[in-house]
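U., I forgot to send this yesterday:
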Amino acid sequence: MIYNLQIAKSNIRRISGATKLDKREVLREVQIEPEHLKEKNNWYRIGNTIEYFKRRNDCRIVGELLSKEVFRLFSKSTADYEPVLFGKSARLGLLSPNIQRPDYTYYDVSTLHKLFPEMARRYGSYTLKNLLDTVKNRKIPECQTLIEDIITVYVLDWFTHQLDRNPKNLLFECSQDGTLSMASLIDSESSFSVNKDGNIDTDSSVLWTPAIPYEDPQFSLDEDSTADFDDNIMCLLMEYPDIVIPVLKQLTDTNFDSIISQYRKSMASKVYLADGGVDYLRSFVNAKQEISYKMMKTL
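Result:
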């Protein structure tokens, strides 16, 4: 079954008077590689704020907003996405202020080699294990907190079935004293069975294929669709049970109904799903909770 996005335009804020930044202005205001900017070039000045607009008119909006709610249950900061109607043509999309803070230097997994030369540099070679081992071996300030944050986000990505936490959108910020920490999370829209066409697809694969595998860079080519549990999350659980189990337990014990019910049609709805889509999201989360419980029982 396919569910598409329903829109209540009268409840959505309209944005006018935004000034688009050119390449030179963006690079002065935002730490982003010029090549990456070619893909992420929708930066605007709105009043005194630098904001990014993602044009979206499908269920990727639900994936992004619902993921944000899950992350915030675990005190994980995300970009402050808001559905808006943008510009004279009233394009629907997500608007968010720039997540970067002054006096910090920003890296993603693909550029961490600038700090740690042993980190992978080539797509297809990144793994979570290599990232965690590097943080441990370097003994950077507050490294245990960083390790716990990375692992928590990975588990939450599994729970939300996030398929696009690629090396460019797992971000870190480095303070002037050298403390490395996770930056606010971005681009979590490919989650909760949102397919490539931007619809919620109840026939999507139940097997999680993360953009950054835990240990095997070739996992997507070798995945075992008959496995009882997702291999990547199980490997992480086996190596870091003291961090993973509390996250799984909180996920299992949390009632997500109020969060999911926000996407049932109401007078205040901005975007919503048909009732069957909301029921599917509830069953999706319940199934993940059952798997969480079973995985904890394997230890």
